[in-house]
Amino acid sequence: MTDTWKNRTNLIHGGTRRSQYGEMSEAIFLTQAFVYPTAESAEARFIESGDDEFIYARYGNPTVRMFEERMAILEGTEDAFATASGMAAVNGALFSQLKAGDHIVSARALFGSCLYITETLLPRFGVEVTFVDGTDNDQWREAIRPDTKLVFLETMSNPTLDVVDLKAVSDLAHAVGAMVVVDNVFATPIFQRSIDLGADVIIYSATKHIDGGGRCLGGIVLGTKEFIRGVFEPYLKHTGGALSPFNAWVMLKGMETLELRCRAQARSADAIARALQGHPKLSRVIYPGLEDHPQAELVQRQMDCGGTMLALELSGGKEAAFLFLNALKVCLITNNLGDSKTLVTHPATTTHQRLSPKLRAELGISDGLIRLSVGLEDEADIIADLMQGLDAC
Prior knowledge:
By secondary structure, the protein is α/β, with parallel strands linked by helices. Helices cover 40% and strands 15% of the residues. The strands form 2 sheets. A 7-stranded mixed β-sheet has the order 1-7-6-5-4-2-3, sandwiched between helices.
């Protein structure tokens, strides 16, 4: 039974459903629609579909369903619904339950596209949004009102790796009946089980660690069956953000090595952060596993380890950052993360470039900040590459 299996076993076997052919690897059901034996069975399925009955690929698919069930088992939630991308998941998780006149509280430190939704789109449709410093519990306490509908946050912020006290924020939100919606991409389902800390709805961009090989877009939203089937599914199936069955199959294959990859990457990230600490070209090394991280005590309490991501701040600003990036040979310049390859990003000119200089400064995104997603290369080679890059600036 899956409820007695450990993570690594569930990541390989959880949610598997086989056809009459008994295939070992999960089957890819590349079909748009499904055939009914009779008109009566078609009518019945549209009234209420069974657990293994499907209507249309926008509503559900056997391959996609395997991915959803495996993720729900891993995260410890009742149900899940997969989406075409991580941002489709964020958009759906928020818009599916909000209407004009609602109030939400959001952490200010968010990925650029998430900020676009909370700063621009939600207010355009009449939703009031209050922003807070996600690491300041007092600001959450002051901002959450009796009429607050939900709170939204990244459990570990992109790109400065601030860690939010999820238990404290959840308690504050639940005290007024508000939902807690979290993006847990940086912490990963391996290093943090958000449902146990009070989150009601958990979002992942499966494009990142879950795929792990830079191949496909995908997203997923997890929560109670009541929320997933009663609130989220109607919104997604009618607005069209469905996950491709092929992409779902890629995600299933990625999940088989998810824990092994993440733990190896986290060990390397810790070693890299410690090797770079105190380097004369760096004003900061930010890694949640380091003792000098601002939320170090919270990280130890809330997460299994510091994760796979770190950030470096070069004291020479943008010029030094670009010299550093252009000198790298192992690490690749891109805006993706969670890959088997080590990836570097300059947030101020890419993922967060649309933010005003003032807001970037408030969030700690300086012109010298580099986001580093640690891959599976030998950590000695990554360190040597970063060191020669620092020598070049």
